[in-house]
Design goal:
Elements: H1 6-12, E1 71-72, E2 82-88, H2 105-116, E3 118-124, E4 131-137, H3 140-154, E5 157-165, H4 169-173, H5 178-187, E6 190-192, E7 226-234, H6 235-252, E8 255-260, H7 265-271, H8 275-280, E9 288-293, E10 298-304, H9 305-325, E11 326-332, H10 335-338, H11 343-353, E12 356-358, E13 368-374, H12 378-392, E14 396-401, H13 407-416, H14 419-426, E15 431-433, H15 437-441, E16 447-452, H16 454-471, E17 475-479, H17 485-491, H18 493-503, E18 505-508, E19 518-523, H19 533-551, E20 555-560, H20 566-570, H21 575-581, E21 587-591, H22 593-596, E22 612-617, H23 619-642, E23 645-652, H24 653-660, H25 665-674, E24 677-682, H26 683-690, E25 703-710, H27 712-730, E26 732-738, H28 744-748, H29 753-762, E27 764-767, E28 788-794, H30 795-815, E29 817-824, H31 828-832, H32 837-846, E30 849-854, E31 861-868, H33 870-888, E32 890-896, H34 902-906, H35 911-919, H36 926-929, E33 933-934, E34 944-950, H37 951-969, E35 971-977, H38 983-987, H39 992-1001, E36 1004-1006, E37 1033-1039, H40 1040-1058, E38 1067-1074, H41 1078-1083, H42 1087-1092, ...
Antiparallel strand pairs: 1-2, 2-4, 3-4, 5-7, 6-7, 8-10, 9-10, 11-13, 12-13, 14-16, 15-16, 17-19, 18-19, 20-22, 21-22, 23-25, 24-25, 26-28, 27-28, 29-31, 30-31, 32-34, 33-34, 35-37, 36-37, 38-41, 39-41, 40-42, 42-44, 43-44
Helix pairs in contact: 2-3, 5-6, 11-12, 17-19, 29-30, 32-33, 45-46
Length: 1254
């Protein structure tokens, strides 16, 4: 068995997301261009240069070293514009020289300044030699453009190469090229990935690689084939792109795909139901997916490498088991009934009876089906057989034999006219099966199978029989060389429709890929037009033959070309041949026996058939194709001369497997990069074969011969690389480190990336043991014990890797201190927090591991185990005990508050209660506030409010709650009559007078037409104003004494305003206003006050009795988060519901009488009212927007309501922001309501600018 690879071990230990203990100190050093001459400034704060060995706090990944990537500060927004600082390690002014000499740095800065409307200054640092550019401009956009141009134009251009495993290339490219496009857009560099091609040597006729002696099997541990990705562009940006690609490679390296092939058809049906069992074999080793291809008899397994290996092992074991445990039972069934055994039916039989069924293909003449079941379960076979009989007898199957003379014509016609689809649509519930291509090629009697209910099938068969009766004698085949079909179609394009319209004849040309000459003519059997089929067919045939004659003749030419050059003519997968033939396919080219028959021999002139190329087509096309073929052959012969240099040498046989690589990866890499052909020959095996001896299992000793063919310089380079690799393998040593198993997971890392990086850094192979077997040894090829880790590689690399691993182990020992203590069980809930929030916060703050378990002996005590450094465990213990101590000092109090006041005290989203707690000196954090105050849930009787917490805080909160309850008990709503014409004066400009009054008296004053007027309820003293004008009723809400004081002040102001003489109203007009629009039009900019501004008085005959707008969505108080609960966490959800407007409104109509001094004033008031009614008609919907809290409400309203007024104007919707709850009501058309909602959320999600922001 193979060793557990580094990438797979991490999943075995569950280390997803753990940090890297082996950060590379020179991650990009191997790719630094020769031309880079700048010196790196040492950054003592760099995690990449001085890595921390602690695994608890991973460093943020860096995109490149400081010497490679330009340092760009964030743009600084000032009143005068924007500014950025850019640092480049080196610059090359020759790149911007153009045709003349290179400009000076000052000249270049002037050019950039004028081009991008910025000011550019620069300075070269004395110590590092780096160039620091300062760019200033009026806008950030201009500065960004200038910065980008400087980087691209001045940074030296380099070409970097990254070797990526072939399996990772799709991830680098991304779906539809999205990933590589994003990297290009970010870095502005060119990234080239060679097209995926089959590995071959461009020998143009040579034997394909591997055709000689079989290479020695590769070792399992070698890497997969790679593709070279080339990155070209400014040095700093190229290295940034290189790092991004390397990150993708690292994350994907542990993935693999394996395919199990040659699965017998009857066994495949038993594997499909056991998919979950196979996937379960990979549990603990990563994710894996399986795909079963029944036709190909294969299963593809894709996922994490170790998981794939285990699933493949499980599937192979199951296949071997099934081969010996299944027994067949054969049964003959008419072929027509085979159609009833679809894949869905077979899967159902398997699920119900544990039996598989194999059905012969339609081309197979056998009518036997086979039922497979377990040898030990004879009853299953009987049940399976019975299930098959039940299914085949559940529907009627009938064959219809096509007349042999016109069978092919009938199939062509019903296929091209979609007759079968129409037949199935007409006769619902039937399935129609046409003959397969194999049956047609075999020349069998062709039948069409029908499946369904008997009466429906018989009706469909009768319809087909009627069609065939009409087609008999109504078809004709016109033979025209298939190479002329496209030309005939082009010439007859206008005639084809006329032939059908005038002569009732349809023309069907065969697919050009079939290379058939026959053109089918059909006298339309579905047409009601009368006429002679024979005459019409003859007329169309003559015209088609005339067009064929005009198209020209067909030329046939034999081109003698040695067989070894045919591959060059054909090209990879026939691509070169397709290019010669062209898109129009008016020429045919056949290579060797394909054209003149498969029999051996020769043609006239003694030329062997396999050395011929046959070209057919129009004369001009044949001449062109022959000329192109001869040119390709000549080029191939010249290439052979250039690529015929050969070198042979020997290497140790034990190194061949590692050099060849898994699946030939190493050899393929040399072939891809150098274009050479390699063969490895074991001389001992060759001698055994020559002497007729059976090949024995050879030892690793001895020599193997290497043969390389290609261009001289390429062959010599390949030889050099192979010899160097063999020398490195000869220097390889092994060393076993004894490391306790508990530290293995830390050394492996997430996705194995730590140990992979260590392997890459020191060129070594590191093997960890797998799960131990009964003997206590790990299940690896090296038979490692559980506490052993094997290192293989060069002496120096093994020594360096060993030192670093042991250093990390020592650090792990130092960091894994453990402390245990206990806390009261009642404090555990507070220590953990909602969803573990509190304990996770402690873990993050201290970098310690914390485990909490209840003590078995005492349920009142819970044990806590803390792991980490001494400092970390001390801090974690202190934090946990602090929470536990708080629970011990708590007291509990009860306050009696009527349930009708609870919602008001809690406030929308708990805002009122949060503010109350903070006023008492309590915490501001929601988690800390949770549990201090607990109100009864809806449905619970009584008004007990429970307080629990620190003694002094609980006392303060209790006093504040009692004060708030007392204020609510004393709150009343009183009415006062104020003439409507004086409302505007009492409110004041911008509401100033009203605000002053409310502030002085501590009440709320609602004038008619205000948005909250209807929601405050009816006044206590409403009976005192039964005959009063509703438009004069002003409501005052608050403590009784304060309300009475405010009313007294209002009455005092009324007397002063009443001294003005009332205007004389001589003109009036009555307008009907539906009750359902009453509240809406009154909320549109305070309609009544607008009308009165024209000195017009309004009398209303009646008023609506129902609420202003439909009730909002029901509130599920049980689901809403509550601040007064222990585990409460404020919700961040935004709720939105739209309902039709006016659905529950009054149905009556009110007569509005407008009275004015003159007609002009009346007309103005009338227009305002009619416009409001029109808006009301368009306000078809009401939206209710509920925010998680009221923190954004001030921004939504704006200064003196400016923002909400702007939103109303922009969206055309009426927007009401609640003063008490988290609700916002939006009224208008559906489009306006949705637009207003989005506009409000934009305001909510836009953070208000703070002092110091740039």
């Amino acid at each position: 068995m193979s060793s557990l690879s580094a990438a797979d071990l991490q999943r075995r230990h569950g280390l997803e997301g753990a940090p890297d203990p082996f950060p590379s100190l020179t991650e990009n050093s191997n790719h630094q261009s020769a031309g880079a001459s700048s010196v790196t400034a040492v950054d003592t704060n760099s995690e990449a240069a001085f890595p921390s060995l602690a695994p608890a706090a991973p460093a943020k990944p860096t995109t490149a070293g400081t010497w490679a990537t330009p340092r760009i500060t964030k743009p600084i927004a000032k009143q005068s514009g924007a500014q950025e600082t850019l640092t480049l390690p080196s610059i090359d002014l020759n790149q911007v020289a153009g045709k003349g000499k290179a400009p000076t740095i000052l000249e270049y800065q002037k050019t950039i300044g004028s081009k991008f409307r910025v000011t550019v200054t620069s300075v070269q640092q004395r110590t590092s030699g780096h160039f620091v550019f300062t760019i200033k401009g009026e806008s950030e956009r201009d500065v960004a453009k200038a910065r980008k141009h400087i980087i691209i134009s001045l940074s030296p251009s380099v070409s970097l190469k990254v070797e990526a495993p072939n399996s990772v290339i799709p991830s680098i490219i991304g779906p539809h090229g999205s990933t590589i496009s994003a990297i290009r857009d970010q870095t502005h560099v060119r990234i080239d990935i060679p097209r995926k091609e089959v590995v071959s040597v461009p020998t143009n006729g040579h034997a394909t690689p591997g055709s000689g002696p079989s290479p020695i099997p590769p070792a399992e541990d070698d890497e997969e084939p790679t593709t070279v990705v080339t990155i070209t562009g400014p040095e700093s940006l190229a290295r940034e792109a290189q790092t991004l690609i390397m990150d993708i490679i690292t994350s994907k390296r542990a993935k693999s795909t394996s395919r199990i092939q040659g699965i017998p058809k009857h066994i495949a049906s038993f594997l499909a139901p056991r998919r979950a069992e196979f996937v379960g074999a990979a549990e603990g080793f990563g994710e894996v997916t399986t795909t079963l291809d029944r036709q190909a008899g294969s299963i593809a397994v894709t996922g994490d490498r170790e998981a794939v290996k285990r699933v493949v092992e499980a599937i192979n074991a199951t296949i071997e088991e099934l081969k010996t445990s299944l027994t067949p039972l054969k049964m003959g069934l008419p072929k027509k009934q085979h159609r009833l055994l679809t894949q869905a039916v077979l899967s159902e039989i398997m699920a119900n009876t544990r039996c598989g069924v194999t059905v012969p293909s339609p081309e197979d003449p056998s009518n036997e089906i086979t039922v497979w079941g377990y040898i030990t379960q004879g009853s299953d076979l009987s049940a399976g057989l019975q299930a098959v009989l039940t299914k085949v007898n559940s529907q009627h199957a009938q064959e219809f034999t096509l007349p042999p003379a016109i069978a092919s014509d009938v199939l062509t016609y019903i296929t091209r006219t979609q007759y079968v689809k129409n037949l199935q649509s007409t006769h619902s519930g039937i399935a129609v099966h046409l003959p397969t291509e194999g049956q047609i090629k075999n020349g069998e009697t062709l039948t069409i199978d029908f499946v369904g209910k008997k009466e429906t099938v018989e009706a469909a068969v009768a319809s087909l029989a009627g069609l065939i009766a009409k087609l008999n004698g109504a078809t004709r085949n016109v033979h025209v060389d298939w190479l002329l079909h496209s030309s005939v179609q082009a010439k007859a394009s206008k005639k084809i429709k006329a032939w059908h319209d005038v002569h009732n004849v349809s023309v069907y040309f065969p697919d050009g890929k079939l290379e058939k000459d026959a053109i089918l003519l059909v006298y339309d059997p579905l047409s009601s037009r009368e006429g002679s089929a024979t005459d019409s067919l003859e007329l169309v045939e003559k015209e088609i033959l005339a067009f064929a004659k005009e198209a020209g003749s067909i030329k046939h030419e034999l081109v003698p070309v040695d067989r070894k050059w045919h591959d060059a003519v054909a090209g990879k997968d026939g691509t070169t041949l397709n290019a010669i033939i062209g898109e129009n396919r008016v020429v045919s080219i056949k290579l060797g026996p394909e054209a003149l028959g498969s029999a051996n021999g020769s043609v006239d002139g003694g030329i062997a058939k396999e050395d011929l190329i046959v070209v057919r087509g129009t004369p001009s096309e044949v001449d062109r194709a022959v000329k192109e073929i001869l040119r390709i052959v000549e080029n191939a012969k010249n290439d052979e001369i250039d690529n015929s240099y050969v070198v042979e040498f020997e290497i140790g046989r034990e190194y061949v497997g590692r050099i060849v690589g898994a699946g030939g990866a190493g050899v393929n890499k040399l072939r891809d990069q150098l274009g050479v052909r390699l063969d490895f020959v074991d001389e001992a095996d060759e001698k055994d074969r020559e002497n007729g001896k059976k090949k024995k299992t050879s030892s690793s000793s001895g020599k193997a011969k290497v043969k390389i063919v290609g261009r001289r310089e390429n062959v010599e380079e390949a030889q050099k690389r192979i010899i160097n690799q063999a020398d490195r393998l000869a220097d390889e040593v092994s060393e076993v480190l004894h490391i306790p198993r508990q530290y293995h997971s830390s050394l492996i890392g997430s996705s194995g990336k730590y140990v992979i990086r260590l392997e890459d850094k020191y060129a070594v192979k590191i093997t960890f043991p797998r799960e131990s077997n009964e003997n206590g040894e790990g299940k690896t090829r090296e038979h490692l014990k559980p506490d052993e880790v094997l290192l293989k590689g060069g002496k120096k690399g093994v020594a360096s890797a060993k030192a670093e691993i042991l250093e990390v182990v020592e650090f792990e020992k130092e960091s894994n201190n453990i402390i245990k203590f206990s806390v009261p069980s009642r404090a555990v809930a507070r220590i953990l927090g909602k969803g573990g929030a509190s304990i996770n916060e402690i873990k993050d703050a201290t970098d310690a591991q914390i485990d909490i378990d209840k003590a078995d002996s005492n349920p009142d005590v819970t044990n806590v185990t803390v792991r980490g450094t001494k400092k970390a465990i001390a801090a974690a213990k202190a934090a946990i005990l602090a929470i536990s101590d708080q629970i011990g000092e708590e007291i509990t109090e009860v306050v009696q508050i009527e349930s009708k006041y609870h919602r008001t005290i809690i406030g929308a989203g708990g805002q009122g209660l949060r503010e109350l707690i903070q006023r008492c000196g309590g915490p501001s954090e929601p988690r800390a506030q949770a549990g201090l105050v607990h109100f009864p849930r809806p449905g619970e009787t009584g008004g007990e409010v429970r307080l629990r917490g620190e003694r002094s805080l609980v006392k303060k909160i209790k006093a504040e709650l009692e004060k708030a309850a007392a204020g609510l008990r004393d709150r009343v709503v009183l009415g006062v009559l104020v003439p409507a014409v004086q409302h505007k004066a009492l409110i004041g400009r911008g509401g100033q007078h009203l605000t002053d009054l409310q502030t002085r008296t501590g009440v709320q004053v609602q004038f008619p037409g205000s948005r909250s007027y209807s929601s405050v309820g009816e006044p206590e003293n409403a009976s005192d104003f039964e005959n009063a004008e509703p438009a004069d009723m002003v409501k005052v809400m608050g403590p009784r004494a304060a309300c009475e004081a405010a009313i007294k002040e209002l009455k005092g102001q009324i007397k002063v305003a009443a001294e003005k003489p009332a205007p004389q109203l001589t003109v009036q007009e009555t307008i009907p206003v539906p009750h359902k629009y009453h509240h809406f039009i009154n909320q549109q900019g305070n309609l009544l006050r607008s009308i009165r501004s024209f000195n017009v008085v309004v009398d209303q005959s009646s008023f609506p009795t129902k609420p202003a707008v439909p009730s909002g969505p029901p509130v599920d108080s049980t689901a809403a988060p509550r601040i007064d609960e222990e585990d409460a966490v404020p919700s961040n959800d935004v709720q939105w519901q739209v309902i039709p407007n006016y659905q529950d409104a009054d149905a009556g109509t009110s007569e509005w009488t407008l009275k004015a001094r003159d007609q002009a004033s009346l007309d103005k008031a009338k227009k305002v009212l009619l416009d409001a009614l029109k808006s009301a008609e368009e306000a078809t919907h009401v939206g209710f927007l509920t925010l998680p809290d009221r923190t954004a409400f001030p921004r939504i309203v704006g200064s003196k309501g400016a923002t909400v007024a702007r939103l109303r104007a922009e969206t055309g919707a009426d927007i009401t922001v609640s003063r008490e709850t988290n609700n916002i009501t939006v009224i208008g058309s559906l489009e306006a309501v949705e637009t207003a909602k989005e506009a409000i959320l934009n305001v909510v999600n836009t953070r208000a600018p703070r002092r110091g922001d740039h």
